[in-house]
Design brief:
Radius of gyration of chain A: 23 Å
Distance between the termini of chain A: 67 Å
Largest sheet of chain A: 5 strands, parallel
Oligomer: homodimer
Largest interface: A-B, 72 and 71 residues
């Protein structure tokens, strides 16, 4: 049987050591290049169109793509690729930045709940509730016991939304320290990208190994049957986009989607539409004086 | 001086009679075909990227594209085209359907305010607050005096958001009665599109002339200096997408956008990044036993 991208990238059992995961490997990379990309894009478009159609006809199913990773790992790039592949009206994008005062006044899952996708929609989270365990661990603003409570709350939350019809696809975009250096330098050297650079990025980069440990903990604690983690090698932008596209494709294929066929009398409707008077002028019925046509 | 799409499609002064506006004409259509489309898409991508960058650096400017039109006029199609042309992370899409109980419990502008785009973002409204004057007029659920109050409230609302940094681009996608027939028949005849068909669509189609009058009133009453209406001939999907893309392009060009250049010592940052130790392994610093590499 053909190996799936799900199989190839799913987190391996046991203690998580990210150094054991390649950042530049390309499992199940497509050898067809642009041709494969085009095919993926067409298949995704069709699948997502069916998901959306089902949502419009009462299905509760939806997909939540959670993107996590170090700065420059490509969360925005994946979003652009995935959303660019499908009809944007069926995708809902949400970026989670540093929490606001209002957000901090609530439970940490509050802001995330508000931006969950509706039925038929693919939600994309650029960062997520995982920031609320990563950052507090690295900056030591929560105790280990408090972190454990949050891991449990996240698992419960993901179990709850899965039961309500959401398929959750969690991707850790895995880049090397060297790749981040190159991408930060690219920002420094390109006047069109300098606006993305923030001095705070350097301070966070200095905490790379602390973030690595925080990610290892989170991957281990929040990898569940209903919402598993995938580790996506992300040194190559092209491969990263392809791999996430494949994860999404497999997810949608497994849902066995179909275009709803409303139980209407199509012959009668066709007859009604074709038997109308040919081409009445716009708006002249009530005006009756034929003042149209400039 | 070159004529702009703004000039070509802006609502003409005086009483509005939609029969006087062609649905199949193609003012300023691009003769370059796919080449022109590609260029438009590239220019839009760059302009929107600058708008987004300015938003990330404190600018309050943003764009709101309001799409109105009869059923099948292409509000979703324009959205897909426009959003497909630019980076999706800088676009926020909002569709307004029949108001919910909660929405009806508030002022009619309440739900619209909640979905206004943030700084740097292009908001796309697929239907909008205009539904709340169109439908009540056609179905006679509001008196003329109540409608006048809503027109005034809309003008005041658009003046307020414009003053706060939003450029509003309002497009009426103008199709003929015959084009709607063809598109509804296409839904009937294609099992992949039947899910979009709703018997209520036929009832609304029967009210075509009433909707035309309602649109004429709304175009006339809510066409202001700060938020003018554009009438986009929309019998041709290709032209319709091109024309809205051009309106957006001209809007963004007039904003004189630039990539922010943060006042940082770029040489120092470049030096910091390049003088680091070459390629530290991920996560091994703290673990120290080199158990990486599977």
């Amino acid at each position: 049987m053909k190996q799936t991208m799900h199989d190839a990238l799913v987190l391996r059992p046991g203690p998580v050591v990210l150094a054991g995961y390649e950042t530049s490997s390309k499992p199940l990379a497509d050898v067809r290049g642009d041709k494969g990309q085009l095919e993926q894009s067409q298949v995704l478009t069709e699948l997502q169109s069916m998901l959306y159609a089902e949502g419009a006809h009462g299905s509760r199913r939806r997909v939540l793509l959670v993107l996590q990773g170090m700065d420059t790992s490509g969360k925005g790039g994946v979003t652009n690729h995935v959303v660019g592949s499908v009809q944007p009206i069926g995708v809902q994008y949400a970026a989670f930045k540093k929490p606001t005062e209002e957000e901090l006044a609530h439970d940490f899952l509050w802001r995330v709940r508000q931006r969950l996708p509706g039925p038929g929609v693919i939600g994309v989270f650029d960062r997520s509730h995982y920031e609320d365990v990563l950052v507090p661990r690295v900056h030591r603003t929560l105790t280990d016991a408090e972190l454990e409570l949050r891991y449990a709350a996240i698992n419960e939350f993901e179990r709850e939304i899965t039961a309500a019809g959401t398929t959750v696809v969690k991707c850790f975009l895995h880049i090397s320290y060297e790749t981040q250096r190159e991408r930060l330098l690219a920002r420094v050297d390109d006047p069109r990208k300098r606006w993305k650079f923030d001095e705070a990025d350097l301070a966070e980069r200095a905490l790379w190994s602390h973030y690595t440990l925080a990610y290892e903990a989170v991957l281990e604690r929040c990898h569940t049957d209903v919402a598993p983690w995938f580790v996506v090698p992300a040194d190559s932008k092209k491969y990263r986009n392809w791999a996430v596209g494949q994860l999404l494709r497999e997810t949608l294929e497994a849902m066995d989607l179909h275009y709803p066929q409303p139980a209407l009398d199509w012959n009668e409707i066709r007859e009604l539409l074709t038997s109308e008077a040919p081409r009445p002028s716009v708006g002249t019925q009530e005006q009756g004086d034929g003042q149209g046509g400039e």
